[in-house]
């Protein structure tokens, strides 16, 4: 992946990559080739393996993958009405596809071997497909004749011909591999054979690499289109495409001699023709005047792809650099792909301009040009694109609460978030009661009807560090990267993405004047450190928060990657740090070690070993006293879950282990440290261990904490050790159990059903569709609990006397707290929609 430093001038501030092939981007460098045009809300890429992959521009998720050719796909183009897609390939075939159904409509080929088909275009005026081939020919097929001419005999189909003498080197020296084609069948669409009279042999003295059709009336006679072709011979040729006596014909009408370097790619803008050449020059021709108006050296290596628009020329080179020129002046350039940039396209999605590039590194990359053009995203139309830009910024603050060196980053992150809320129209404050702790962000959005119910959204902008496992991150943790429909970055799922989904949901409601009742955001900066200082901060500012009816959180995950869930339970936690010290210095184990020595570490290990027995039963007296019995309703939910589980996703943990994680307490030993750091001849004078209990309803954290303290003291007393014991207890966190039957959960459930389309399966191939049907059998979200903890959730419920609910935004594979933390775009966008509905529809309590 590209590091952000290589994207200059803040241009293209975020790369979204789509993998065309395989799991890793670093494999098979010369073996994957992409051609990537863009159609409205979809991106089409042709691969070296002969596939055409279609992605949603909105979510970057794969919509479909067509096994399109038995050779590398070398060119793609659309009909002007965008209904049809034309693909050409190393298998000597041009295929015509429906962009709606993705069916193959026709398969067009020549009667003899023409080698690779490098380029294809389509004249809608004459309903004619034109192709340029490796054997230097131009060929065409008039689709209006397809049912008139006799059906071709299968014998001449390229996949059945035995001798092939072409072993091509395409643009950039790529060898187009041809796999053994299967026999043509129904799936191939109607087979159409090019007639002998529709061929111009030796159209160039070299491969026909690229072509384009000019419709400009100032240049062409009325109703006559001109085809422009670029060849391996360095020539650009013009051809009139006409109908004569009912037959389409091509006649050469001009030639531009450009020197010897092959013309590898051309792009047209009005009457200007841009030709990218071998060795890095770009020629600019005026088609009206038939004059070359400029030549400039754009790179030291081959120009493999060009796109022209917005007054700029975009070039992709053979060493992976994307370059932007204004006339001949280079405005910026950056490393976009590992090696070859085989395709470049310009497009706009939701008002944002993009450059899309396809490389031979198995990636299609999407570059946001808004910053480069200096276009500020409008504040009224808060598209998902604007949400992404905000998230990208939010992630860039290293808001690690557990390290003092990040205090300033935390303050800046908080202040940025506050300003975002302010821009959305909230009344905001940075709340801080103690200079040692990060501030919390307070924002209050006023509803249209004051005095009604008021809801609270609680979240945390702080994150856990990302340097413990830094080399396992595939991209820089504190910059947002998009790949294959996922956003990667520390905190993207826990909890920055969900916070922004909720914030933008409110912004939508405020902008459209649909916010009826007040919504308060309280986003703290110490959650990952046990919400240090939160109680005081909350109590000091209770007047700001007011009378709250419902508490909403979005800081948990689905059970697997497919089924939307609602979380109604979290465990509590008690952390403890226990030290045993001898009061002496470290000693030599040979000189001083004897059976009379009470080693602190041995004491500590013995002590810890007494906490649980061999079946993990906790020996602390009273530990299990208040655990709730398993209810009937709970049993039903587990039933629903195991039914869903049985649909067989490998990611699913089994229901028994879930049950034990969600409703059974546990004890964990996190790690021992000693004063000697483990040197093999030393008896450390001090040993420390960090442990924790996860607790379930109705264990009271404070009671468990005290019971544990007593237990450790009395067990230590039994050791009769002269050493000193020290116990430090963390802030106790109570377990939490929501009420899935209350109005908050019901509203959440209805919103989830609607946004995720749980009741009405939707075809995923529908244009611009990111709400997908997730399961035939899932009619409502799964109600789940979690093994993790959120320190303040129970506290907030008690303080505000209001029930809380958790909307899990992320999937099981989000990897929160771990390397390559991520969040699926679809989940982010749907969370925004869900919050929108929920904030609108919440009932009075
Ligand atoms: N989002 C998590 C809580 C969580 C974890 C929910 C796993 C669902 C599944 C939260 O940010 C977190 O990390 N909590 C800590 C709390 C601790 C620092 C007191 C935890 O659970 O360890
Ligand atoms: Mn966390």
TrEMBL record:
Belongs to the peptidase M20A family. This is Peptidase M20 dimerisation domain-containing protein. GO terms for molecular function: metal ion binding; peptidase activity. GO terms for biological process: glutathione catabolic process; proteolysis. The lineage of its organism: Eukaryota, Fungi, Dikarya, Ascomycota, Pezizomycotina. WD repeats lie at residues 66-107, 227-249, 334-369. It comes from Gomphillus americanus. It comes from the Eukaryota. InterPro entries: Cyt/Met_Dipeptidase, GSH_degradosome_Dug2, Peptidase_M20, Peptidase_M20_dimer, WD40/YVTN_repeat-like_dom_sf, WD40_repeat_CS, WD40_repeat_dom_sf, WD40_rpt. Keywords: Hydrolase, Metal-binding, Protease, Repeat, WD repeat. Residues 569-717 form the Peptidase M20 dimerisation domain. Residues 166-186 are annotated as: Disordered. PROSITE patterns: WD_REPEATS_1, WD_REPEATS_2, WD_REPEATS_REGION.
């Amino acid at each position: 992946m590209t590091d952000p430093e290589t994207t200059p001038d803040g241009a293209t501030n975020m790369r979204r990559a789509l993998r065309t092939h395989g799991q890793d981007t670093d494999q098979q460098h010369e073996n994957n080739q992409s051609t990537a045009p863009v159609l409205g809300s979809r991106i089409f890429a042709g691969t070296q393996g002969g596939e055409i992959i279609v992605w949603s521009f909105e979510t970057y998720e794969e919509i479909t993958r067509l096994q399109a050719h038995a050779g590398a796909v070398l060119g793609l183009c659309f009909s002007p009405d965008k209904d049809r897609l034309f693909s050409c390939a190393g298998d000597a075939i041009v295929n015509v596809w429906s962009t709606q159904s993705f069916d193959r409509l026709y398969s067009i080929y020549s009667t003899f071997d023409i080698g690779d088909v490098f380029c294809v275009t389509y004249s809608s005026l004459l309903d004619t497909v034109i192709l340029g081939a490796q054997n230097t020919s131009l060929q065409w097929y008039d689709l209006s004749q397809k049912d008139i001419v006799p059906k071709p005999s299968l014998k001449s189909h390229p996949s059945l011909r035995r001798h092939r003498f072409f072993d091509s080197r395409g643009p950039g020296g790529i060898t187009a591999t041809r796999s053994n084609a299967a026999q043509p069948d129904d799936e191939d669409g109607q087979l159409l054979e090019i007639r002998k009279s529709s061929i111009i042999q030796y159209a160039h003295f070299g491969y026909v690499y690229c072509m384009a059709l000019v419709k400009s009336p100032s240049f062409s006679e009325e109703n006559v289109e001109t085809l422009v072709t670029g060849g391996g011979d360095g020539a650009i040729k013009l051809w009139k495409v006409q109908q004569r006596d009912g037959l389409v014909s091509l006649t050469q009408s001009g030639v531009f001699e450009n020197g010897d370097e092959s013309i590898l790619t051309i792009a047209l803008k009005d009457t200007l023709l841009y030709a990218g050449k071998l060795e890095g020059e770009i020629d600019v021709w005026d088609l009206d005047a038939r004059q070359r108006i400029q030549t400039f050296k754009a790179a030291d290596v081959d120009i493999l792809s060009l796109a022209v628009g917005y007054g700029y020329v975009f070039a992709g080179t053979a060493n992976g650099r994307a370059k932007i020129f204004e006339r001949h002046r280079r405005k910026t350039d950056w490393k976009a792909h590992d090696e070859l940039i085989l395709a470049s396209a310009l497009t706009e999605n939701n008002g944002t301009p993009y450059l899309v590039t396809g490389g031979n590194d198995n990636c299609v990359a999407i570059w946001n040009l808004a910053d480069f053009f200096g276009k500020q995203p409008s504040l009224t139309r808060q598209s998902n694109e604007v949400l992404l830009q905000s998230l990208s910024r939010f992630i860039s603050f290293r808001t690690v609460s557990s390290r003092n060196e990040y205090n300033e980053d935390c303050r800046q992150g908080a202040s940025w978030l506050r300003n975002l809320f302010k821009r959305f129209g909230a009344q905001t404050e940075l709340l801080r009661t103690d200079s040692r702790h990060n501030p919390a962000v307070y924002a209050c959005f006023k509803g249209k009807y004051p005095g009604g119910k008021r809801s609270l959204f609680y979240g945390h902008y702080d994150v856990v560090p990302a340097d413990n496992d830094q080399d396992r991150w595939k991209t820089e943790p504190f910059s947002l990267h998009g790949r294959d429909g996922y956003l990667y970055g520390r905190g993207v799922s826990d909890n920055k993405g969900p916070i922004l989904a909720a914030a933008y949901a409110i912004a939508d409601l405020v902008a459209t004047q649909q916010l009826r009742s007040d919504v308060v955001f309280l986003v703290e900066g110490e959650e990952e450190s046990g919400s240090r200082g939160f109680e005081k901060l909350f109590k000091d500012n209770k007047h700001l928060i007011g009378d709250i009816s419902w508490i909403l959180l979005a800081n948990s995950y689905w059970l697997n990657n497919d089924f939307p869930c609602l979380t109604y339970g979290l465990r509590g936690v008690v952390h403890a740090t226990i030290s045993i010290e001898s009061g002496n210095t470290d000693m030599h184990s040979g000189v001083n070690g004897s059976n009379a020595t009470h080693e602190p570490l041995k004491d500590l290990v013995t002590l810890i070993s007494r906490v649980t027995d061999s079946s993990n039963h906790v020996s602390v007296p009273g530990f299990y006293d208040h655990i709730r019995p398993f209810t009937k309703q709970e049993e039903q939910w587990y039933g629903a879950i195991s039914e869903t589980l049985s649909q067989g996703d490998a990611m699913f943990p089994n229901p028994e282990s879930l049950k034990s994680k969600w409703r059974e307490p546990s004890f964990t030993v996190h790690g021992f440290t000693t004063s000697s750091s483990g040197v093999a001849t030393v008896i450390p004078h001090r040993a420390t261990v960090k442990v924790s209990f996860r607790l379930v309803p109705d264990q009271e954290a404070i009671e468990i904490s005290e019971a544990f303290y007593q237990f450790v003291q009395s067990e230590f007393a039994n050791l009769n050790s002269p050493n000193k014991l020290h116990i430090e207890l963390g802030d106790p966190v109570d377990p939490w159990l929501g009420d899935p039957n209350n109005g908050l959960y019901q509203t959440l459930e209805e919103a989830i059903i609607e946004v995720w389309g749980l009741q009405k399966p939707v075809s995923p191939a529908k244009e611009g569709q990111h709400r997908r049907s997730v399961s035939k059998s899932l009619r409502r979200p799964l109600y789940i609990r979690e093994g993790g903890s959120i320190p303040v959730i129970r506290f907030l419920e008690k303080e505000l006397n209001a029930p809380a609910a958790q909307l899990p935004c992320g999937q099981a594979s989000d990897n929160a707290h771990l390397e390559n933390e991520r969040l699926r775009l679809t989940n982010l966008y749907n969370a925004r929609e869900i919050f929108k509905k929920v904030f609108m529809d919440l009932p009075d309590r």
